Every structure is written in C-alpha cells, then in structure tokens.
User: Fold these one by one.
Assistant:
Number 1:
Amino acid sequence: MKFNFLKNTLASVLLLGVSVGSASAAIIGVDTTYDFKLVADNDFALFSGTESNIVELLYQNNFVWGDQINQNNTQFTYNSASPNSYIYILALGGGGNQENISGMINGVKITDINPLWHLFTIDNTVLPGSTSSNIASGAYSVQISDLNNLIDTTTPFWSDTPLVQNSTQTVIQRAGFGTGYTMPTSNGLLLKYQVQDFNINARAVVQDAASVPTPSTFAIFLLGLMGIGFTRLRKTAP
C-alpha cells in the first residue's frame, strides 16, 4: 500500500511538472537590425505594413539629398513575428526638374525588384502640411493616416507595370547605386515590396525560455511535493 501510494504521488508530480513546463512555453519573435541606404531628390520615409495598409514608421528622413548621401549606418529594427509583411517606401519630390529615389535595403537594391507602385500629385489635400520647401529641405514628416487615407480612397491604387529605371539624373548618379526610379515634378511615389524581397527574416519564431521553469526551480517544486507525499505516508502508517 505504501509503495503504491508513493509511486502514484511521484507519477502525479512528474506529470504535473511536465504539463506546467509545456503549458507555460511561449512563442516570441526576434528583433533584428537591418542596414539600409536610400537617397531621394528630395525626401523619403520608410514603413512596414500589411498587404492593405501602412502600420509602422521605420525611418523618416530629415536631410537634404546631399546629406542623405553622406549618411552612414542608417538602420531599422524588424521583429520576425511581426504581422507587417510588407515594406513601403515613400519618395517625395520638392519641385525641382529632377525627382527620384535610389538605394538599397539589407544589401538589395530597390531597383532589383519590381515593386507595386502608385504615383500621385503632392498637395495639401493629399499630404496636409506639405510644401515644396519643407520637402526639399527634408523637414516634412508624413503622417501614416494620410497615406492610408490615400490608399483607401483611390481605386484602383496599385500598379504592377514595371517602373522605368533611370541612371542619368544627377542625384541618382551621385548616390552611387547605378539606377533609381524617377517621378514628375512635385509628385510622390509610393513603392510596395514584400519583406522577403530584401531577405528580411519574417515570421521566424523562437521559444521564450523565460516563461519555462528552469531546472533548479522545477527541482525545488518536485522536492516539495515529494515531501508532502512522504508526510502523508507517515501519518497513515500503522
């Protein structure tokens, strides 16, 4: 009788410990930092989002194009479990006779992939607060809600016709990426890519070890329950 009671107690303890460990396991994403370099004549911003909408600002440029070229170590952080599986690039022209964007993300040139795209005329009804001067100086900061409103109210929005690449405009040549995309004067160009286009590790997950009891914690838990079992055995002994 004593042996059966002890055996059943130990089996219950082990089963409980296994269930606690497996039930408390959690899945989280991994934050990874990615390098990028974009140069726009005149301004740009980088976002992540879902297939239908822009969700998060990854980087807002605040420099004129000459200083953009001199910028080093521009980076953004992406969580591998993020539901934002698209990268959006917004290029804005400040009113000059050459408007363009070129560059690379995580070592991949933006002209190496054919993105979905939308070209639009910049004005205060589309981008409130925007002016030729604050775009040209890099001082304009776009609001995600304004871009999503543009996406939601324009049908059809995205074009999949391959964009013509340019290698002759001054800023594209000085940026050093070989080719870029151009837009008419005082226009905006919104580009849409999948994160995999830039070898960004999306949807990879790892086990959150912090949520699983450590071996020492589990050992103390096990010994405590065994002690309770032995105490009960002594109390029931003749």
Number 2:
Amino acid sequence: MYTAEELTQSVYNGIKELGASESEARLYTSSVRLGPVSISKLAVELKWSRPKLYTAIRELERRGLADLKDRRKFSRSFVVSSPSLLIDRLRLKMESVSKTEDAVMGILPNLLASYQQGENLPLVRMIEGRRNLRDYIDRIYNVAKYDISFFGCGAEVIGLMSHAFEVVAEEFRSGKKIKARALLVANQENAALKELYSGPGLQVKLLHKDMTFTSSFHISAHTVVFWQIATPLAIAVDDQHITMMMQSIFDKLWEKAS
C-alpha cells in the first residue's frame, strides 16, 4: 500500500511532467488531497490570497484539469478534475514522445553521417537493464539506414532481441535494407549463426579460436555501441574519430578472419 505522502508526491510529479508551474502543481495536489472544499479554505490551506488562487485555477483550466465555471450554481465547494484525467494526459504525452523518438531515431544515422564534429566532445549514453537494452537493440536495428559492422558475441546480443529479429535478419540477409558484416567469436552457436544467416546483404565471419571474450561492439555512421551482456549494459558513443578508429580495427580483423 502507498502512503498518503507517496500518493501526493506521485500526483505532484505527474502534473509537473506535463509542464505545470509550481503553483499549478501545488494547487492540484492539495485539491486532490483535500477533496471538495470552499475556495476560502483552499486559499488558507495553500497560504495564498484569493486572487493568486483564482489565477492558478485558470491555469489548470487551460490544461483541462479544472473547471471552476462548471460548478453547480449554488455550490460552495471546488475540486480539481479527477486524477484519471491527469493519467490520460500523461499517456497522450508518452505516446507523442514515443512517436517523436522513433522519428528522430529514423533520421539519426543520416544526421550523424553529415554532422561534422570538429572539436566538440563526443556524446556518450549508457543503457542499463535487460528490458531497456532489448528495446534499444530492437530500435537501432529496425531503423538502421547505414551499413553496419558488428564484432563479438552475436548469439548473446541476439538473445536479448525480441521476436522481431527474424524479420530484421531476413532484411539484412536479402540486402533489401542495408548491408551488414558480422565478425563473431568462434564457437558453436556463432558458427550456426553464420550458416543460418549469411546472404547477399549479411556477411558473417568467425574470429580465430584463441580470441575469446564476452563483449561486443556495433558500428554504424558515426556511432559505436559497446555491448556488455553479462550486466547487461550498452555504452553508445557518438564520435566520428572513435568510430573511424574502431572501424579500422574491425576492417583489419575482418581481413584475417574466415
């Protein structure tokens, strides 16, 4: 069970997530906690003047989270709109952010390929946890627009992907989407992957047997992603200089692999 304080904090965090001001957030959480009360009592509770309270109510009305004018004509009490409406607003925002993120991810490789970094510092992101890592892997392979070089433990990374992998793998293998090269640790699982997924658009080679490790990296456009599956986590580095270095290492190892 949640305590009253935890519930109040959750409501406060929710309305702040919608971009509400401090005054709006305080008014909404206080009104939810108190229920229907008079305007004067609400002003006393918040230690505000009545004009300040009415201003905050009008701000909430603009967000659709309060409706002072719809009170019954002779009602002496006021309460903000139900928290279920707040949840609906948050859900709509999350859906909008998700669509925007997918759209940006779709053009990100193009942006990175044309971006001249100069002396700017690299952008480094860390993705932690099995679920977050799975979502990240699914997304970057589904929106891939530039050729990919993958090095390391293919079976382990594939193990984190969703069932969408088969569709993505077929697109790579056929060469309909983009081309990819995979340089994998020499073991039974990766040898099976080589036989199963090699095709015009997906070349697979195995490293020498004495090269064994449990991490991987992925290169596309100006981004290198280092996978550490044991934890699991990924570190994505957007840096053209580091990418060039890693691509050079990959190409040299590719030449020597079978």
Number 3:
Amino acid sequence: MRIPHPLLPAALVAAMLIAAACAPDAEPPEDRFCRDLAVTRCASLARCCVPAESALPVDATTCAAIVTEQCAAAVLDPVRRGAARFQAAGAADCLARAATCGAQLLAFCAEATVGLVPGGNFCAANEECVQPALCLPADGGLQGPTSRCFVPQDEGAACGSAHHFCAPGAWCDPATTTCSPASDEGAPCAASSMCRVGLACVGGACRALAATGAPCAAPIECAGGLCLAGVCAEPCDGAARR
C-alpha cells in the first residue's frame, strides 16, 4: 500500500494561503462603485430631498434597488461587453457628488465610464458611444439590435431627422434644415434650443439661467431647474428637511 507523503497536506495548505494572499480583489471596481453609489446616493436623497424634488423615492430600500439597476445598465453592462472602460477617477468624483446636497445630487454619473464604440457602429446604450455620439435606433424605434452610435452635426451640416441632430452650441433651423449657431444672451428666440448652453428662451429672448432666490415663472428659467412659488430654488439642498 502506498503511504501518502506526510508533508503533502501542509504543502497544499501553504500553497492555497499564498495564492489567496496574492489573488486580486474578487470584486471588480465597477461592481464596488455601483454598490457604493446606491448606498451613498440614497442616504443623501433621504437627508437632502423631499419626494417632490427627486425622481427617485427617498425610501432607502426602493431607492437602492432602482439606483443599482440604473448603474448596472449604464456602467456594468457596457464595461462587461467591452464597449466602455471604467474610469476610477470619474467614479470617485461621482461618489463625492452623490454624498452632497443640492442639484448635483440628481445628476447622472456619466463620468464613471468612457465609451469605446465609434460613430456608425452598433451599440446598446449611450454610455457605449465615443463622446459626443448618441446610441439611437436606426429604424426609429426603441434602442435594440439596430441601434448605432450617431455623431452630432456641426454648424452648417444638414439636420432635421432623428439621426441628424446638432452638436451643443448649434440648433437645427427648420427653415433651412441645417445646423445654425445658437444665439447669445439677449438675442430673439422661439425656443430654448435656439440659445447657447446655459441660456433659456424667456419672454422671446435668450436669458441667463436665474440663480437661487431669483423670481421665475417656470423651472426652465432656473439654474437649479426648480421654480417654487415664483422663486428659483435649489433642489435637494436640505432646506425642506430643516
């Protein structure tokens, strides 16, 4: 009968311990980010917001489930498909913003990933496209197997269809179906899309977005995107909780 080597079990145990000590973190950084984001953001929503100010429920359990699902679709799925790269620095900035009160709490964490799919190629979500392209269905329906990354058009280019839209700083003039330069502050306008970024069409003219405390008639006039009782307010600034 063959007798097992008496040192074999000890050697195996030592090898296993060394392998475990040298093994990388079992949880990928993007998974850890989504978990931390759900905890941090939902805690801040409960502390800073009232239900009317937030598109997410302030109930911790429901909020965490929704944020986790959103993060999976926007971060985990594109990264696992190799269509996007996780950005640790951007993710850290996002988590820091999610821990604070104010309108920035409601902003989406686009900086957590960088898209790798060039314009014209198939995609499943905007996060997969090389900026500033958008993932749009080629057949005009919902995002799916036919979706491709479409690049915004520069000034002077044709526009007017779902796949021919203008880059920031330009708007699609229906009279010429070309991308025209967006208007500066004080210029006449019929819609906010005609005004440069940071401006809104108010009273037929492009105006700077109003600061918190300024009078307003509609949310689009306010930098914080919230107009309460005729005054621009800062969403989720904690004021309603105090």
Number 4:
Amino acid sequence: MANWFEDEVRELERRPLPEDTRNLVLFYGSSSFTLWEDMPRWFPGYNILNRGFGGSTLADCLEFFDRLVVPVSPKAILLYAGDNDLDQGVGPEELIRYLRTFIARKRQALGDTPMAYLSVKLSVARLHLMHKFAYTNYAVERFLADQEDVDFINIFRRMSGRGIAPFRRYYTHDDLHMNAHGYCLWGAAINDYLTDLDRRLGGGLKVRPEAEESARRAVCETSLAEARARAEAARQAEAVPKAAAAE
C-alpha cells in the first residue's frame, strides 16, 4: 500500500509551503482534492494547503498521516477519502473503523485541532454502489455526531438530492472525476463550513477578513467559463482532422 504512493508522497513533502503559513487549513485525501489544482483561489480568506494524493483510500491516508499532516501543524483539517475504499470492497463498518483510528491519531498528534470529514460522494461511474454509499454516509454521520472536534459535511446529499440529470453535470467525461460544476458545489459547501468554524473559533482561522463571499462566486463563474472555453477548443481541434478527411 505504502509503496504505491511513495513517489507522489515524496513530491508533496518537497513541495514548498505557502508563503504565509498562519492558520493553515489542510485538505487531505484522494483525487477529488488532488485534481482541484486551483483550490487556494476558491478560499481567498484562508491559507490553504492541498495534500491530496492519487486515488488514495482512507487506509492510505492513515499510512501517510505522520508524513503529510503532522509536520505542517494545521489549524484545521478537511479529509476526503472513502469512495475508493468502498469501491475496492471495504464495508461501511470497516471504513468507520479506519475513520475512528484516523481521529484517534489526529488527537494524539494534534490534540483538538478541528477536522471535517466530507461524505463519500457518488459518481456516475459508481451508481451501482449508490445504496452502499448512502448507508455508509448515514452511519458515518451518526458516528461523528458524538465527536466534538470533528464535523460532517454532507456532499452526497448536495450532489445527488436533486435527481440524476443535475447530478450528471458535476462530472467529466470519465464519469468519475468532477468538473468545474462539481467544484463549484464543493467550494460552496466547504466555504460554509469554514465560515462557521471561524465563527466558533472566535475569528481564529480566517487570515484575510476582507475577503468576501462574492470573490468565491466570481471564482466559480471564472472556472465555469474556463471549462467551457477548454471544451470548445477541444471540440474545434477534433473537428479539424475530420474536416480535412472529408475534403
């Protein structure tokens, strides 16, 4: 398990930290974070560090916790992992055992540092696991209800609660990874959490109080426009050889 991600983890360890390391908000987990390449601009009021890696599982996140989480002493942790575990045959109860161990390790190393666990997301490619994912999220939410230092962000409900047609628009052509629409939804959900957490900490998390919610909405609109431009460029590039072949 460890050797599979060793090169990527070493690269993350070598990657420079943000210039301003006050109150770091650490995003840790699997490819839904790894592929969010412009993550910091979605959260302009906070110092963001993205240490997502590959198609990692929650078990992998435990494996590399001491190397990727502990050394940066985050002020808050957002964890996303679990869908790969479930896809590989791990059951809901076993996933909760991994999460319980992760929380215990967090408390041992970082005390009561606040943490949020993002629910397992359902993707188009994994619709056959819908009931397993839904039950897992239900069980995790109940488990976390008693954990004072850990919150639950229900991404599953936000993404799939309005039916299959809106749900499909959140994903790329591979039906597994999210596009700009998906990250707009995640950005809003996480911003809501960070705003509430900053309030609970008495203003001890946000480092740029002047950053406004309107800035996040502008980032969302820009990302969607960029995605449309890339799709149009790809469409035109594909059309050129077809046109040439038809001549």
